[in-house]
Write the structure tokens for this entry.
Amino acid sequence: MLRTSYQIFRCFNRRGLLWKQSPRYLTEDEKKDIPAVGKYRSPWKMFRKEIKDYFDENITPIEPEIPLETEALIIGGGAIGSSVAFWLKQRNPKGFRVTVIERDPGYTQASSMLAVGGIRHQFSVPENVQLSMFTSVFLRNIREYLSVLDSDPPDVQFNHQGYLFLVPEERAEYLSQSVEMQTNLGAKIRLMNRQMLAQKFPWLNLDGIALGSYGMEGEGWFDPWLLVRALKAKNISMGVQYVKGEVVDFDLKEVGLPGKKDLFLDSTVIKNPEGQLFKCRMSYVVNCAGPWAGQIARMAGIGVRKEEGLSTPLPVEPRKRFVYVVHCPDGPGLETPLTIDTTGVYFRREGLGGYYLCGASPNSEEEEPDTSNLDVDYDFYEKHVWPALAYRVPKFEVSKLKSAWAGFYDYNTFDQNLVIGPHPYHKNMVFANGLSGHGIQHAIPIGRALMELLIDGEYKTINLSRFEFPRLVDNEPIQEVAIV
Amino acid sequence: MATLGKCLSLCCRPGLFRIMPTCSVLYRTMFNKYGEKWEGFPSDWLSTLHNLTFDKGFWIKKLENRMWKEKVKDQEFRPQRLETLGPDLATATFIVARNGAVKFVGQDRWIRIDKDGKYALPNRKVEGLYLEAVDASGTEILYTGLSNFVDLHHLRYLNFSNCKFFDDWCLSYLHIFETTLEFLDVSGCPEVTERGLATIHKLSNLKCLRMANLPKVQNPEFVALLLEDIMPQCTILGACPDTEKILDSKQDENKLQHDTRIDIKTKSLSESQPVISQRILGIAHSRGKDGL
């Protein structure tokens, strides 16, 4: 085969074509031989290694586990990452290469596993209602979407009990307007006055409550681990590559005319479990890192560098929330919805044995717990959760705290709502972050929206253009009022 | 004429819409794509060339998907049917055409499709004809099929036993009958779990629920107990496997009244109406027996 002198130069040059443009923003000892993307690999060496492996009976992949290039690189393999991978890949399983980078395949800290798993249609922003409604439709037809040949069809153990929001007199007007908006979009929510609440839920203490909104269909809770597992199994069957690694940096390249240089996200630097660094070139990098999305954005220079267009940071940070498991043998029965009190304390039934899950968000910023670990604060239960719960449902006075766990919300400090779409400066970096506490119920339609955006160029089903990054630059919040 | 039609159908591919508009109409009517708008080539059409494969499993799966989609489409809600026939008759026609049986208020006859494919239902609106009972046992009714149950204010009896696609989502849809439904039968449905049965509490007027032979329900007796706690007026049948044998034999129908484990409440009913539970059981046993 003819080779030009240029290509011969390349194969003898260890760093490859990009040796002059060395990776920036890494420490000196990290600027070692990172095998650069586009490096020429000798077919003779590959062939020799293959023969040697065959005779040594050492079946190892020839490609490095971290691919050199891919079309969509998804950072984070939780619910949102797997959902984006699923929708992108199912479009053309053989024609589109998708890689998912997950640093913790056991999902020990992932919000997807530690979520309570509720799904509700009762939001104050219309797009959120539409997103939840599509999740209900998807879970209803989960066999068509996510069944893998030769395996049992997936089942997420959906409980159809609904959500019940209780409001005092001053918020009754707002609630009825919200319910009207939700009903116009097709959700089945019923406004219940005190009489109806007393008749339907006799275990409820109605002091200070004027109105309640009850979801009749499509709302409830499910097991988020089963959903993520089904998504992951389907993805792997379609050919998505799940890679264990951690994104440590982005390789920014200067492009453009002299005097008017722009930065371009050329490739991602990924650390594998042994500590080696690899570069991966991609068409799109999708940030689905959940609570740590802000960190990933800072690696790309968003909010850190002084260039115009990179000055606004991504305001997503982890916030710790606790879930307590309580046993109450004579508690509310089979019909219990996920009830949310006026104080923000919520509880729901778990199984048929008299166990309940409850929790609450802290009322102010000062009370936010420390996010360096996942330790549970039992004082919060004693001071905030149990008094409100026992007041609202007197049966909980005779209850016992059995266990608890903590998880992170990917909290959007700006307006607690979704940030989706490409970054205005780094056009190949796409966000799907900031769903403070309702990530699991919106993961699936967000994946579909991103698929439509990236492949078709526009949102086809649910128009989420309001939630794109420019609203953070222009300082226009879209406040979601019903945050649990 | 037939060959001309075939030639036209071959010519009328979506790409020719712009130059031959009449062909687009022919294509759409022949292939039942009326109402679907051609959006243009998708931007990733080249990638679909990757899908050309001679893998047998792929094509079999594609065929199965297509058959499933046709089934779903067949059971979709059709507004023309509702307009022509009115709500009760539209649902009745829908059910009977798919091997179910229906019964109207004031009549004692079950209407079912016969072996020639004919059924005795009027084909336009009739005043005063209200649907009282629907027996969809053994049919392949889906969630989309349930969207045909619109504006039924007199429906008292629903039988979905042995429906292999009837699952929790379908059960949660039945909340629309909360004021009128009195009897519900979900025996033998392989997809129903206790999470679906927990939605029965929304049917405030329910007097009898039959839940025998549900393979996915772990503790049917326990679930029945919990349901009886929150719905005191409802009788739960079938939770204990022994009672099934009693119900199956028509002669032992009366034994049920004397069985101490089952509590049939007759106190709250007025004298002019017959004993509801007995009448309900009467309905349950008349299905399919006399071919009506």
Remarks:
- Confidence is low (pLDDT under 50) at residues 10-25 of chain A.
- Chain A touches chain B at residues 91-96, 140, 144, 149, 157-161, 188, 216-218, 333-335, 352, 455-457 (CB under 8 Å).
